[in-house]
Amino acid sequence: MNGMDxxxxxxxxxxxxxxxxxxxxADRLYTPYAVLFLLLYLSLGIxxxxxxxxxxxxxxxxLALALTVWLSxxxxxxxxxxxxxxxxxxxxxxxxxxxxxxLFVFLPFLFIPYGDLPAYTVITLFCLAIFVLAARSNDRxxxxxxxxxxxxxxxxxxxxxxHSSTEYIKQSEYTGKLExxxxxxxxxxxxxxxxxxxxxxxxxxxxxxxxSHPEKAxxxxxxxxxxxxxxxxxxxxxxxxxxxxxxxxxxxxxxxFIDEFSAKNGLPVPFTYRGDLDRLTQMHWRVIQENVTExxxxxxxxxxxxxxxxxxxxxxxxxxxxVKDNGNxxxxxxxxxxxxxxxxxxxxxxxxxxxxxTAGFSVTTLLPIE
Length: 370
What we know:
Keywords: ATP-binding, Kinase, Membrane, Nucleotide-binding, Phosphoprotein, Transferase, Transmembrane, Transmembrane helix, Two-component regulatory system. By secondary structure, the protein is α+β, with helices and mostly antiparallel strands. It folds into two domains: about 5-145; about 245-370, 2-Layer Sandwich (Heat Shock Protein 90), CATH 3.30.565. It has ten helices and five strands; from the N terminus they run ααααααααβαββαββ. Strands 1-2-3-5-4 form a five-stranded mixed beta sheet, with helices on one face. The chain is elongated, with a radius of gyration of 45 Å.
């Protein structure tokens, strides 16, 4: 049952009670037939609310209207009061130009006795008000349903695009790995493989000439040693070029962690860095990331902050990593295992950690740079 059916049924019930009262108070001889028709009229109204196929609904409403008109003409005049709900029920099933067809509900004014005209006018206006309010409410509900369906369709489309993007990223990463493996294999084959093969050939030749031409064999061995050294140097250069710098590894890991933390907790986390990051070693980055992680965790637990900022500044003799929030702060605080752990990690590199709770809370890690 939708909103329109509910309010139309309510208007029918009210009019039915009023009509039944008229029969009971004015014409007791006709009361049994009136009760029979009123029950039939109410049953048809309930049936419309329970049936879904539009053709059946329209047929039942037209049947109720036809019976009401027939009984109004051939039966008791009080049945005229049932015409407005029946007409509006038909209009509810034919929504095209429904407000224009509402004029038909005023046609019975030409045939109603003058004494019943005020009551019929009140009933008509009452049903009209309910019909207009129910129609607007139903139209608004349909509009919201269409918007909901549109949003659901958009969400499904975005979800599919997200899955496609995720698969594309995975495929791109896998393709990149394959390309890097192919490049490494080709570099080993072109440079190192040829060098090792040349050295091996000269060592085999030196082995054969060792007894008959020892000086020539020594020259071949020296050439093989030189070629082997060059091959080893090529290996070292190739591996060095493959290994990313500590600065790229450290800043990339830290930035990835900060982005994940911000997205997970819904907090903006501005991240800035200054200075020559190439001077930082893997140990520096490890201590910085673990201390930043611990500081962010403590902020989410205790600070009740709405914003967190992270700043890394490489100075001449040290690096400073600061995590600051705009939370409650604490002038006096007791160092727990997390704070003690941050100090211990910094002490390994002869560094220190400064805690300040005067304006929000900040954790500053200072590490010396050799």
